[in-house]
Structure formats: structure tokens, C-alpha cells
Amino acid sequence: MPETDNQKTYASADIVRYYEQINQLQPAEQLIFDRLSPSLPTMKVLDIGVGAGRTTQYLADRTAEYIGIDSSAEMIAACQTRFPDRSFQVCDARNMAEFASGYFDFVLFSFNGIDYVNHDDRLTILQEIHRVCKPGAIVCFSTHNLQSFEQTFKAQWSWNPIATYTNLVMLGILKVLNPGLTEAKLREMPWAIVKDESHNFRLNTYYIRPDDQIKQLVDWFENIQVYGLMGELELQSDRLANLDQWLYYCCTKKV
Ligand SMILES: C[S@@+](CC[C@H](N)C(=O)[O-])C[C@H]1O[C@@H](n2cnc3c(N)ncnc32)[C@H](O)[C@@H]1O
């Protein structure tokens, strides 16, 4: 993956400004934080990929200890300006050696931040998260849903000519920016790194099927729950068919 594209994007002034302006929790995050609310006051929290601090205001005052980290020094500078009394560090989730093993009660990697590294590095991040967690600690992150990208990556016809036109234009752009990717190939892939429309096609983004995301977690984590964008809990009795662009996963470190 030309991963430096992602790092450059998250370091650029316009993108930092964008994240400085978003303050709201997403519905799934609101629900997850509400559920955790009784336990938060005793929790040591690591907020990975904290960006410009969107989630800081919802966690820092309510938890026993709060540390926000991000690989982008520019994002961390924005956090420090916004929350001068809070603790932030420039740190890449692939190597969190400065944090002791078994330290945190709750690790968050919100808004798909885990999707901006290559596949092997993603596994390294999950391993690092596992390492810094106490047994039983809660891990929560969101990640792009390949089932949703599959829908965008095929021609969709509708009675509304504007909707059809918009879809075909988007499909054309995606095909140009993702040469070699076909609908047939995509159907066979458990995960894929693609250029999508976010931040004007500047990012290379990892998308994964929900069942494959669960497979990535099961060796290290248990009690895995999957939430749709609106916070509805997805039942895992059947294949997860959700088509939201990204999904939330909450789990606990195996004891
Ligand atoms: C989509 S933004 C989300 C920012 C913030 N969590 C929010 O919700 O507003 C993703 C963030 O993850 C950070 N990030 C990406 N890869 C990272 C890594 N390997 N380690 C730490 N942070 C990373 C980026 O710099 C960026 O700030």
C-alpha cells in the first residue's frame, strides 16, 4: 500500500482542520459509551488514532486515566491546543512500546483509524492492542465493510435518473482509481485495500467482510459484538449481511 499517502493526508492542514470541526459521537459510539458508562470512572483508557480529539471530550473527564495517541504529529498538536490539560502522545499503534503490557481497561480506535495501514500491520496493531490491555479489558474499533464497497462497485440502476447517474459516475471514478479490481475479484476477497471517495480519494482504505473481521479477532479476543452504524447490534447466528459503510466491533481481551 502506498501508505505514506495516508500519513501525508492525516498530516495535511485541511484534513486536520476537518477533524477539528467534528464533535459529535456517531450513534454506535454513543450507545457503546452509554453501555460502558457505569465502568468508565475506574477505567484507564487509551484512545488510539484520536485525531483532533473528537472523542476526548466524551471520555477524558469520565475516566480514571485517559491518554490519546495518534501517528500524526499535526493531529496531536491540534489535540493539545484544544485540551491543554489532557495527555496526548505522537505514537503509532504498530509499536506502542512506551505503554506497559496489561495496563489499559478500555482501548478505543474510533472512526476506522485502523484501516490506514497494510494487512500485516493491521494484525500487528491488533496484537499490540491485545498486549497493552488487561485481561478482560474492552476493545472497541470501527472498520470499513467490504460488503458495502461491493455494492458501490457495481452499476446500480434506479427509476431516479439522478441517482443512476451519480452511481455510474462514482463507479467510473472508482474503476479508474482502482485498476485491476473487478466485481468478480472483489466477491472472492475477504478484505481489500481500495481508494474510496473519502477525503477526495486521497486515502488507501482497508475494507473487510464482517465474518473475516471476526476471524481476525477470535484468537485474542472474546465476547465479540458487532454494531451497525446506527448502533443496532448485529446478530451473529447467520452470516453478517449488514451493508453499512463501516461497522463497530467491541470485544474483550481473553482472560
Ligand atoms: C479517520 S481519522 C479519525 C480521527 C478521530 N478518531 C475521530 O474520530 O475524529 C483516523 C486517525 O487515525 C490516525 N492513524 C492512522 N493510522 C494510525 C496508526 N498506525 N497509529 C496511530 N494513529 C493512526 C490518523 O492519523 C487519523 O488521525
Concise overview:
The longest helix has 17 residues, at 161-177. The protein has helices spanning 3-11, 13-21, 27-36, 56-59, 73-82, 119-132, 146-152, 161-177, 183-188, 210-217; strands spanning 44-48, 65-70, 87-90, 104-109, 133-145, 191-195, 204-208, 221-227, 233-234, 246-253. Helix 2 packs parallel to helix 5 (73-82).
Notes on the protein architecture:
The structure is a single chain. The chain has helices spanning 3-11, 13-21, 27-36, 56-59, 73-82, 119-132, 146-152, 161-177, 183-188, 210-217, and strands at residues 44-48, 65-70, 87-90, 104-109, 133-145, 191-195, 204-208, 221-227, 233-234, 246-253. It has two domains: 3-144 and 210-253, Vaccinia Virus protein VP39 (Rossmann fold, 3-Layer(aba) Sandwich), CATH 3.40.50; 148-195, no CATH class. Helix content is 37%, strand content 24%. With 255 residues, the protein is α/β, with parallel strands linked by helices. Strands 1, 2, 3, 4, 5, 6, 7, 8, 9 and 10 form a ten-stranded mixed beta sheet that branches. Helix 2 (13-21) runs parallel beside helix 5. Strand 4, helix 6 and strand 5 form a beta-alpha-beta unit. It contains ten helices and ten strands. The structure holds S-adenosylmethionine (SAM). The site of S-adenosylmethionine has 22 residues, from loops.
